[in-house]
Amino acid sequence: TEITDVKTNEEVQELGRFAVEEYNRSHGLGRWRGFVSSSNGRRAELVFSRVLEAQKQVVSGIKYYLKIEAMENKLSKTFESVVVVKPWLHSKELLHFSPSAE
Predict the structure, then answer these.
(1) pTM of the predicted model over 0.90
(2) Can you give the residue ranges of the Cystatin domain (predicted)?
(3) Which helix (H) or strand (E) holds 78?
(4) Would 23 disulfide with which of 1, 33, 97, 98, CB 3.0-4.6 Å?
């Protein structure tokens, strides 16, 4: 199901922020680590900008498909992510995060 109010939907924007933070954490990236340009062969921390598009699917929880804009080395890039939310367990899990094909 397409989510139409993406820009003003606080839950969706927070899920986008969560996805970027989880990506950074799982790759050992963080502001304190001083990573430099990925063109130097090192990954740079991503900085969340906003969710551009979102869809959701009810499964055993709610699966969100997010198109996220984030900054890497001050360059705007687009990423695709999948986050599953299980409200009754108060849990969120990042299932997928990758650069967008567009």
Answers:
(1) no
(2) 2-100
(3) strand 75-86
(4) 97
- Cα-trace Rg, the chain: 14
Whether 1 is covered by a domain: the verdict is no
Q: Which pLDDT value is given to residue 101?
A: 86
> Residue 23 class from Cβ within 10 Å (0-12 exposed, 13-18 middle, 19+ buried)?
buried
Burial of residue 19 (number of CB atoms within 10 Å: 0-12, 13-18, 19+): buried
Q: Domain for residue 59, yes or no?
A: yes
CATH number at residue 14: 3.10.450.10
| Count of domains observed in the chain | 1
Give the number of other CB atoms < 10 A from CB of residue 69. 16
Q: Determine the residue type at 36.
A: V
